[in-house]
Specification:
The complex is a heterodimer of chains A (357) and B (262). Chain A is an all-alpha fold. Chain A has one domain: ABC transporter involved in vitamin B12 uptake, BtuC (Orthogonal Bundle). In chain A, 73% of the residues lie in helices and 1% in strands. Chain A has a two-stranded antiparallel ribbon. In chain A, a hairpin with a 5-residue loop joins strand 1 and strand 2. The longest helix of chain A is centred in the first third of the chain and has 35 residues. Chain A is globular, with a radius of gyration of 21 Å. The two termini of chain A are 30 Å apart. Chain B is of the alpha/beta class. Chain B is built from 8 helices and 12 strands. In chain B, the strands form 3 sheets. In chain B, strands 6-7-8-3-9-10 form a 6-stranded mixed sheet, sandwiched between helices. Chain B is globular, with a radius of gyration of 20 Å. Chain B starts with a strand and ends in a 13-residue tail after the last strand. In chain B, 45% of the residues are buried. The mean pLDDT of chain B is 89. The chains are: A mainly alpha (357), B alpha/beta (262). Chains A and B meet through helix 1, helix 9 and helix 10 of A and helix 2, strand 6, helix 3, helix 4 and helix 5 of B.
């Protein structure tokens, strides 16, 4: 505006942005450290330095190379990417739906995936129980189960979005449709479980426990592409989400195509969640709570919230997975149990603290 | 003319809400849109910046046709302050920075930040830049919203009931700011108003709406008591106080004669 004398940027604002950037940097470092730690710790302990050398292609021994590159690294990366995808999707759902409870659970996506997996186990016969050396059950046809879970969760997300398009993309309609759908899918899963035999029931329940150890390198590539792609998409929309925080009406006045941003945001977050849940099973808590943790620490500005949620989710799931492998070694607990065990107390502590900005 | 509207029609669910609305606003001029509740004042504002799509009509800003522009392009030409923004946790600085959204593609540069800072000073809340808007008073918040519209660098500003939730002092302060901005930056302002006397004080021209159509489009001197009575259905007197017209409703409408029931 030519008449408007150019003002001075307040030093407090610059400092405030610097604090957010520093927090992002710290989170990135923490995630990287946790990644090395996750690869280093386990039944066979490999020092962090050796892990780094192995990653650089100079393994101290062939045994190290096998453990690091074939076993632990894919699991750790799967945990990192899945956490990133779930958390970024949760943050986006909360923002586009303008509802703090937005998450894969509230929108029925996780429940739909569980229904799809149970359906595959029982009706498509993918769930013959096998005993592996550590006594864990595996699913005989993981691809079929995963595919069925994926299709079901996409159907659920599609239904939510279709309802929203039909009724004008109001957040209430989307959230309530999701909740109803979640209840429907839970009931469907219960019906299947009720009629399942012991073997099928075990396979269904086993599938529901989210577990990153299911991922091989192929899954890691898919998860990585989905997590980074969706996070990039959300970051590119950060300004739009900020504007929508100020109200739909204000956002429209600022040139934001509110309905389109809302539906696309829902679509991408649903897709990312569906991929993660289908590949690894139901992992609760990360998508709901990680964004809130970040909001409590650095506020709602999506330019920082999106990357920070992403890193926080990845770090939390990595930490949870490492802990899950170690606490009852040689048995590995389902990671979904640990995400809640680590995350819930931390979150309650944050709720009790006064909010900083 | 900065803003020229002609033959604007808008229908909602088949009901005609606005019919053949025409008016013009010059640079630096404040147009007050008046009329009873539900007559379509807010709808008119939303049609001007295509938040609602009019069924027919032309809206021109500096001769460019608004209804053919993309939403960001409209936002570069028109600032809009809705009646109720949702209050969220955001600093005033960030809230105003949103006004740069139509101009920036990826990140806000130093120039954007300087403009925001200047706009906050301009509307008198520079000292509140780092305050969260959810802890602000109505008057402060309204000024932040005006600053946001200002950094859009618009030719036209649309304000929906800018003083509806404010006390007397804040009403005066905010509207003084609006008028200064209009004059100082050559912005054409269209604002809807309920309070006739506040409108008379701060408006340059007046658009009376009745049944979705323009009843009168006139200057202050041309307003007559009959005009107000026809639009609002209330008998009024037009007095003059310190050289300004003041509208006063004529005593309470006569009560029906009391009938004594046994």
């Amino acid at each position: 505006m030519h008449h408007l004398a150019q003002g001075e940027i307040p030093a407090a604002y610059t400092a405030y942005l610097t604090r957010k950037a520093l927090f992002l940097g710290a989170l990135a470092l923490a995630a990287a450290a946790l990644l090395v730690m996750a690869v280093s710790l386990g039944a066979v302990r490999i020092p962090a330095w050796d892990v780094l050398r192995t990653l650089a292609g100079q393994a101290a021994s062939p045994r190290d190379a096998v453990i690091v590159l074939d076993i632990r690294l894919p699991h750790a990366l799967a945990a990192l990417f899945a956490g990133m995808g779930l958390s970024a999707s949760g943050a986006a759902m909360q923002s586009v739906l303008r509802n703090p409870l937005g998450s894969p659970f509230t929108l029925g996506i996780s429940q739909a995936a569980a229904l799809g997996a149970s359906f595959a186990v029982m009706v498509l016969g993918s769930g013959v129980m096998q005993s592996s050396t550590v006594g864990a059950v595996t699913i005989s046809n993981p691809l079929l189960t995963t595919g069925s879970a994926f299709v079901c969760s996409l159907l659920a997300a599609g239904l939510v979005i279709a309802m929203a398009r039909y009724r004008g993309a109001s957040p209430e309609v989307m959230v309530l449709t999701g909740v109803a759908l979640g209840a429907f899918c839970t009931a469907g899963t219960m019906v299947l479980q009720f009629f399942a035999d012991d073997v099928q029931l075990a396979a269904m329940v086993f599938w529901t426990f989210g577990d990153v150890a299911r991922a091989g390198w192929r899954e890691v590539w898919i998860l990585g592409a989905v997590a980074l792609g969706s996070a990039g998409f959300f970051l590119a929309n950060a300004w739009n989400y900020n504007a929508m925080d100020a109200g739909d009406e204000t956002a429209r006045g600022l040139g934001v195509r509110v309905e389109r941003v809302r539906i696309l945001g829902m679509f991408v977050s649903a897709l990312a969640t569906a991929v993660v849940v289908a590949a690894l099973g139901v992992i609760g808590f990360v998508g709901l709570i990680c964004p809130h943790m970040v909001r409590r620490i650095i506020g709602d500005d999506h330019r920082y919230l999106m990357p920070a949620s992403c890193l926080m989710g990845g770090a939390l799931l990595l930490a949870a997975d490492t802990a899950a492998r170690l606490v009852l070694a040689p048995h590995a607990l389902p990671v979904s149990v640990l995400t809640a065990f680590i995350g819930a107390p931390g979150f309650i502590w944050l709720l009790l603290r006064r909010r900083r900005r | 003319m900065r803003l020229a509207v002609s033959d604007l029609h808008y229908a909602y669910n088949g009901d005609c809400v606005l019919r053949a609305v025409e008016f013009e606003v010059a640079a630096g001029e404040v147009l007050a849109v008046l009329g009873p509740n539900g007559v379509g004042k807010t709808t008119l504002l939303r049609c001007l910046n295509a938040v609602h799509r009019p069924a027919r009509g032309v809206v021109r800003v500096d001769h460019a046709e608004v209804l053919r522009m993309s939403p960001p392009e409209i936002a570069r030409n028109m600032g809009y302050v809705p009646q109720r923004g949702e209050v969220c946790r955001m600093t005033a600085f960030d809230a105003v920075l949103l006004g740069r959204l139509p101009h920036i593609s990826w990140r806000a540069g130093q120039d954007d930040l300087r403009l925001v800072s200047a706009a906050l000073e301009r509307v008198g809340v520079g000292h509140l830049a780092m305050r969260a808007i959810d802890s602000m008073s109505g008057g402060e918040l309204q000024r932040v919203c005006i600053a946001r519209a200002l950094v859009q660098e618009p030719a036209v500003m649309l304000l929906d009931e800018p003083t509806s939730a404010l006390d007397l002092k804040n009403q005066m302060d905010v509207l003084h700011t609006v008028r200064d901005v209009a004059r100082g930056h050559g912005v054409a302002v269209v604002m809807t108003m309920h309070d006739l006397n506040t409108a008379l004080r701060f408006g340059d021209r007046f658009l009376f709406l009745k049944n979705g159509a323009v009843f009168a489009h006139c200057a202050r001197e041309e307003i007559t008591p009959t005009m107000v009575e026809e639009v609002y259905g209330v008998a009024v007197d037009l007095l003059h106080h310190q050289g300004r017209p003041v509208i006063v409703p004529r005593g309470p409408s006569p009560n029906p004669p009391r009938e004594d029931h046994p």
